Amino acid sequence: MISQMEPDASTLAAGGPVEFDASKLQPGQQAVVRWRSRPVFILNRPPAALKMLQSADLVARLSDPHSNEPQQPPYATNWHRSIEPKYSVLVGICTHLGCIPLFYPNPSAQVPAANWLGGYFCPCHGSKYDLAGRVYAGVPAPYNLPVPPYRLINDMIRIGENPPNVAWNFDSILQI
Questions:
Q1: 83: closest CA among 23, 147, 27?
Q2: Domains of the chain
Q3: What is the mean pLDDT of residues 29-34?
Q4: What is the pTM of this model?
Q5: DSSP secondary structure letters along 130-172
Q6: What are phi and psi of 6, to 5 degrees?
Q7: Which residues does 54 contact at the CB level (< 8 Å), separation at least 6?
Q8: Is residue 13's pLDDT more than 60?
Q9: Cα separation of 69 and 72, whole Å?
Q10: Tens of pLDDT along 106-131?
Q11: 87-117: b (≥16 Cβ within 10 Å) or e
Q12: How far is residue 127 from each of residues 69, 71, 98, 120, 140, measured CA to CA in Å?
């Protein structure tokens, strides 16, 4: 009787880790995978993008530039919000109303908003995030994009599993 109360194999598989071969991504290229029925954005950030993430102009425009709100595991509480600066791993769901932001990686004077510095733009209500998933100030979204638990194994990114000796639960984030 007790064994009947356990989840079946398909339920366990739906929440299990997902692997992605990051060696396939060229600098500036993004891939989207699904984990727990959510889109996860994986981005290979080129050196120019990493430099932009640290620029005083960008940091001054952000609501939570130092990731003080718990939207990421402890190993991603840094300026690049990741284990390794080169790779960004973000749950691609706007923290305002759950829309999926669009990827506009390059700075532009117009697209998708004036003085665009590159990142993610939610067309539904105008929320903006940088290439580390940090939310801009003055937009509807209240929090940075969540960072799921993940670990790097050579060029593989395993989403849904923390690095060894780290215990962090994705359910502790404030909002998806």
A1: 147
A2: 17-172 (2.102.10.10)
A3: 96
A4: 0.89
A5: -TT-PBBTTSS--SPPP---EEEETTEEEET-PPTT----GGG
A6: -75, 150
A7: 79
A8: no
A9: 8
A10: 888 777 888 888 899 999 889 999 99
A11: bbbbbbbbbbeebbbeebeeeeeeebeeebb
A12: 17, 16, 11, 8, 6
CB 42 within 8 A of CB 152: no
Residue where the block lists tokens 């989403």: 159
Strand partners, 104: 119
| Dist CA 63 CA 141 (whole Å) | 10
Task: Read off the pLDDT band of 5 (50, 70, 90).
Answer: very low
What is the spatial distance between Cα 4 and Cα 46, in angstroms, rounded to a whole number?
A: 50
88 touches 101 (CB < 8 A): no
Say how far apart CA 142 and CA 35 lie, in whole Å: 23
Whether 96 is catalytic is: no
Quick check: 89 and 45 in contact, CB under 8 A? no
What is the structure's pLDDT at 114? Answer: 81
d(CA 147, CA 1): 38
Residue 166: pLDDT band by 50, 70, 90 thresholds?
A: very high
Choose among 35, 45, 49: nearest CA to 160. 35
Among 66, 80, 96, 125, which one carries the catalytic annotation?
Answer: 125
3-state secondary structure of 91: strand
